[in-house]
Specification:
Blueprint: E1 2-6, H1 15-28, E2 33-37, H2 43-47, H3 59-64, H4 69-72, E3 74-77, E4 80-83, H5 92-96, H6 105-111, E5 119-123, H7 130-138, E6 141-146, H8 156-169, E7 175-181, H9 189-205, E8 216-217, H10 226-230, H11 238-241, H12 246-260
Parallel strand pairs: 1-5, 1-6, 2-4, 2-5, 6-7, 7-8
Antiparallel strand pairs: 3-4
The structure holds adenosine-5'-triphosphate and magnesium ion.
Adenosine-5'-triphosphate (ATP) is lined by residues 11-17, 39, 41, 43, 126, 182-183, 222, 224-225, 228-229, 232, 247.
Length: 308
């Protein structure tokens, strides 16, 4: 199983959109995928059509109540499982503080199911606290969605430092694999300048032992596309909402690229050729979240966790 944490402590850069649609595209290609909602806002859970407020199962129960991962995940589409977030997750950061081994709870839980899935995609909250740390301890690969404007790069250094710290102290397998430019508008000149800056920065790390020495800007950008912003309010992935739009095209490509990327460690990648995604059958008749639930308020921005 390849475990990929989709991470950026900046809010609203496209993390959840990337997890929901990449997971759906990989699942439609025939891979077994489990997506984890580690964000108390529960946007991934809502995006996939579930109501977070009423759920008794999910990532909180795994992290704090020692519930079994296998028993908390739900089949939400063909080949796609979700460990949902529920309202309890809002308190998880502070509850984790007093638990011994608090950084590696998710890793241990996920490892128990690694033979069952080809991919595990983790949607991180917009902070660098203990929830994110659990994602980084569990993952081998980090995918960073980034908005290519000047402010989008603010905090990028701190993000990489955090990955580096986790790599050195908790999880030597952890590497930044890709940077995905989201909400890209190629007509503006600034995105291309920001892209060139990141490329330069990454090139400087080539051949070093840093956790981002192999990172690359993915050769597909997620274009600005209103359909991507509309789909979550119907509890649909982009392939269910508007399968021929730019957003669907771009995320299909991201899934193909991820499938083609060599995994960082151990397990060989599956060889199934990508197939075209037309529609994704839904095994349960969960109604679309048209009664769009109010997002649970975001956690306070957190400092980089103390890993000493
Ligand atoms: N390519 C795109 N074009 C247009 N809108 C987009 C695109 N990608 C994402 N959006 C919209 O932008 C908003 C932020 O995206 P998303 O929720 O994926 O970001 P996030 O990084 O997960 O945010 P948070 O940090 O709050 O969890 C959402 O309303 C989403 O629907
Ligand atoms: Mg999100």
């Amino acid at each position: 199983m390849r475990t990929i944490a989709v991470l950026n402590q900046k809010g609203g850069v496209g993390k959840t959109t990337t997890v929901a649609n990449t997971a759906a595209a990989l699942a439609a290609m025939g891979a077994k995928v489990v997506a984890i909602d580690l964000d108390p806002q529960a946007h991934l859970t809502i995006h996939l059509g579930l109501e977070p407020q009423t759920r008794e199962s999910g990532s909180y129960e795994v992290l704090i109540r020692q519930a079994k991962f296998e028993e908390q995940i739900l089949l939400v589409r063909m080949n796609l499982w979700l460990l949902p977030a529920n309202i309890n997750l809002v308190g998880a950061e502070s509850e984790l503080v007093s638990i011994v081994g608090r950084e590696t709870i998710l890793r241990e839980a996920v490892q128990s199911s690694e033979d069952r899935f080809d991919y595990c995609l983790i949607d991180c909250p917009p902070s660098l606290g203990l929830l994110t740390l659990n994602a980084l301890a569990a993952a081998e690969e980090v995918l960073i969605p980034l908005q290519p404007h000047f402010l989008g790069l603010q905090g990028f250094g701190k993000l990489l430092q955090t990955v580096e710290l986790v790599n050195k102290r908790i999880n030597p397998n952890l590497k930044v694999k890709g940077i995905l430019l989201c909400m890209f508008d190629s007509r503006a000149s600034l995105p291309n300048e920001v892209k060139a800056d990141i490329e330069q920065f990454l090139n400087n790390a080539r051949g070093t032992d840093s956790a981002w020495a192999q990172a690359e800007i993915l050769p597909v950008c997620i274009r600005k596309n209103i359909k991507l912003a509309e789909a979550p309010s119907y509890g649909k992935t982009i392939f269910e909402y508007e399968q021929d739009c730019h957003g669907a095209e771009d995320y299909r490509r991201v899934a193909e690229l991820i499938q083609d990327m060599a995994p960082t460690s151990g397990t060989p990648d599956q060889e199934a050729p990508p197939i075209e995604i037309k529609s994704i059958p839904q095994p349960d008749s969960e109604a679309p979240a048209s009664q769009f639930t109010q997002p649970i308020s975001a956690p306070e921005e957190q400092e980089t966790p103390d890993l000493s």
